[in-house]
Amino acid sequence: MPTNPDAPFAPISLADIERAMQRIRASIPVTPLAYSATLSKFTGNEIFLKLENLQMTGSFKERGALNRILIMTADERRRGVIAASAGNHAQAVAYHATQHGIRSQIVMPITTPIVKAVRTQEYGAEVILHGASFDEAVAEAYRRCEAEDLMFLH
Description:
- There is one protein chain.
- The protein has 154 residues and is α/β, with parallel strands linked by helices.
- It is built from seven helices and six strands.
- The protein is globular.
- It starts with 13 loop residues before the first helix and ends with a strand.
- 27% of the residues are buried.
- The mean pLDDT is 94.
């Protein structure tokens, strides 16, 4: 059964973050920081940009998706995962679920750019286009999660 999207999340401690870092370290490259002269001048501060676009799926979203996948039980892995996303989270879940032999479904709004849907499919997910808005896609993902006994990856 999926987590209630309206319920508050449990607090995350520094120890939780450090354990997650240890879990994902072997699979997620450390990306560099790049100094931005333009933003630094504009803000009057030294501004550095974290180049997460260098991740396999082009986004920091891989960190959370992989961490959640790595702590799944054998039963959860067997059941498969589902997520709702219009792009970056979809690709991260699809890629890492496939890397770990886990079936994935991603529900995306019908307004999702075709390149995002195709890339998500190429990473191994079953893509379901549903709803005119993200909220409608989420509702469908929750419905499928319960009907098919999948793990919801928020």
